[in-house]
Amino acid sequence: MSSSIPSPTSSPLLSADCQFCSVISKTNGEDPIGSANPCSGWMVMELPLPWTEERFDTDPILKPIHDLFHDLYAQGIHIAPMGIARDRDYSTPELARVVYYRRPAGPFAKFEPEEYLLPAEQIAPLVRVLLLEPESKSQFDPYRQPPSAIREIMICTHGNVDVACARFGQPLYQILKKEYAAANSSLRVWRCSHFGGHQFAPTLVDFPTGQVWGHLEPQILPTLIDRHRPVAELRPFYRGWSGLGKFEQMVEREVWMQRGWDWLTYEKAGEVIEQRSGQGEGLDRVTVRLEFVTPSGVKGCYEAIVRTCGNVTTAVNSGGPLKMVDQYEVTELNQVH
After folding, report:
1. What are the backbone angles phi and psi of residue 324, rounded to the nearest 5°?
2. What residues does 269 pair with on adjacent strands?
3. Quick one: pLDDT at residue 17?
4. The Cα angle at residue 15 between residues 14 and 19, in degrees rounded to 5
5. Alpha-carbon torsion 252, 254, 256, 258, what sign?
6. What is the pTM of this model?
7. Phi/psi zone of residue 110: left (φ > 0), alpha (ψ -120 to 50 degrees), beta?
8. Could you tell me if 208 and 100 are in contact, meaning their C-beta atoms sit under 8 angstroms apart?
9. In contact, 220 and 233? CB cutoff 8 Å
10. How far is the C-alpha of 130 from the C-alpha of 151, rounded, in Å?
11. Residue numbers in the chain where pLDDT is lower than 50
C-alpha cells in the first residue's frame, strides 16, 4: 500500500501540457494483458478518510496498518493491500469491514473470502493475526460474518497517485454503482485505493475471481458484469488473473477466449517451464504450461509459447516521460492432455 492513499475523489490539477497516461496507453494500443500483480491474497480494508500521507504517519488507526504492510513486504509476504472508502449503502456505523481474499493451496478458480466487521482500531491486530498467527484467529470470531455469494467490484478512483484514476475511474464507478449494483443485491461496488497500473485507468478488480481489468469503457460493462455476451468482447480490457504470473496470464487469456464463460469455474495453475533471451535485448520466447481441473474433475493441460511481437510508446504516470514497452503474442497454443 502506498504511504499516501488520498481521498478517492481527489483530483489534483495537472499543467496544461500534461497528458493522461491512460489516454497515451490506450491511443497507442498498449495491450494490458500480463499487468495484473500476482499475489497470494488480497486484504481489503474499509479505512477512514482522508487518506493522506500525514495521516498514515500519525493516525492511530492508519499508522499501524501502514507499518504492518511494510513489515510484511520486507518479510516477503506478498499480500496485496487495498483500502476501500465507506459507503452509505454497505457500511455499518461504528464498524469497519475487512475482507481477506485468501489464495487456496494448489489450482483454484477464485479467492476465498473471509469477512469481518469490527471496530477500526482492531483492523491492524486482525490483519496481523490472519497473516502471521492464523492459529489465533478464533479471538476475532465475534466479528466474523457468515459466508455469502457477494460479488465485489473494486474500482480505483485514487487520484493522488495518478490523476487518470480519478478522471476516468470516478465516472465509471458512478455507472457501476447506480446502474448495476442498485439492481443487484449480490453485487457491491466500491471506490478503492491504487493497486497498480494507472496507465490502464479506469481499472478495477473483480472479486472473488481476482481478475483485473483496464482501459474500461461504459459499453463493455454489460458483458463484464452480466456475463451474457461473448467473452471475446472483453479481450482488449483484460489485464489478467492475479492468480498467475505475467506470462501465464497471457496464455490464460487465450484459453479463456476459446473456452468461454465456463472457464471461470475451472481450477487453474500455471508455470513458466522455459525462458530464453534473444540475441539482442529483450525476450526471445517463454514456454508456459497451464493446468486445469473442471468442476466435474476432468483434468487437462495447455502449453504455449509467448514471444515479443514489437513495442509501443506509453506513459507510466500522467505528466511523466514516455517509454517504450514490449508487446507479446501467444503462439503454438496446444492442449497436451
Report:
1. -95, 135
2. 291
3. 40
4. 70
5. negative
6. 0.92
7. beta
8. no
9. yes
10. 22
11. 1-17
Predicted local confidence at residue 279, as pLDDT: 60
Tens digit of pLDDT for each residue in 186-239?
Answer: 999 999 988 888 899 899 999 999 999 999 999 999 999 999 999 999 999 999
pLDDT at residue 1, as a whole number = 44
C-alpha cell at 268: 487453474
Show the cell assigned to 302.
Answer: 495447455
Instruction: Tell which residue, 220, 275, 209, 273, has the closest CA to residue 242.
Output: 209
DSSP output for 47-58 = -PSP--HHHHHH
Distance CA 292, CA 263 (A): 9
Q: 58, exposed or middle or buried, with CB in 10 Å at 0-12, 13-18, 19+?
A: exposed
Q: Is 141 exposed, middle or buried (0-12, 13-18, 19+ CB in 10 A)?
A: exposed
Give the orientation angle of helix 123-132 with respect to helix 62-74, to 10 degrees: 20
Output the pLDDT for position 207. 98
Pairing of strands 187-192, 151-156: parallel
For the record, the C-alpha cell of 190 comes out as 466500491
3-state secondary structure of 4: coil
> What is residue 25's DSSP assignment?
H
Nearest-angstrom CA–CA distance, 231 and 136: 42
Number of residues that this document lists for the chain = 337
